[in-house]
Design goal:
Length: 348
Amino acid sequence: MDLKGRIITKEKTILDALRKMDSIDKKLLVVLNNEQFDGLVSAGDIQRAIIQDQPLDTPIGNILRKKIRVASPGDSFESIKQMMLDFRMELCPVIDENKEILQVYFWEDIFKEQELQPKNQFDLPVVIMAGGFGTRLKPITNVIPKPLIPIGEKTMLEHIFDRFSKHGCNSFHISVNYKADLIDFYLKSKNLPYSIDYFKEDKPMGTAGSLSLLKGVINETFFVSNCDILIEQDYSEILEYHRTNNNDITIIAALKHYSIPYGTIETTHNGQLVSLLEKPELTFKINSGMYILEPDLLSEIPENEFLHITQLINKIHKKGGNVGVFPVSEKSWKDIGEWEEYLKISMV
């Protein structure tokens, strides 16, 4: 039976599952134990495990949900199709009483080009930080501001709009400075179906300083996104995590993997060996450039002063505020802020 590469065994680790999902661009895998069906593992399962501080080398079998949705041999095709639609299932296996997989239905085979929809819709303000000079992308940014750099047939800004609009967001506040008139001219020419407001820095104010200009403008939970990143994730799940944990700020963090091509050595006093690892792999949580903030934090930002968002986050954390971190996989984060990454993405 062709499972389209969406199989993993229960002994494999959380990191193995993440890499598998990234390699096939899917977020749900069938878990086997001795060639028999043992469960399903989703990107959400892995995210919850990481949030609960489970190590990345934890076996998948340790994080499997006991209650999952699968089909039985007697279920009709129409009932299976409806279940997949209702619960946004990438795939649905048909399992008999002996835990044998009789058949697997795939979303793309049944619903063709129809995209999986977000779990929930919400209409919250979105702030896009688009005032930078795009120095790392020169010389193209000498002519085109970074927010208008094309990815396929659309600009970065339009891709960001699309992703939030899919979740129900239609109100955008764009921080501008460099080539602000060109950004305004382009977006007006597109006649987009959104509410778009600009707030302009008279001078560079860092990744958070210009947010002070939104005091009294935004009075509800809001998203902040850099203009050079895309996150492929159900944003309603991030929002649910933010609200469930009563966070003041939630940072969306990408898991970035690095392979060290050498053996590494750890020593103690007098140069005595503690450990020797051959070509270890390291994984870090990287600040992706997307956040959820509560509106009262705007009062924490000094007016007309340079402030990075990391400084704001540290300030809130030191005051005892709740700062959450929501993980996404490495390939769920697209960063076009540098030429190498931009060329990779633009050629896909």
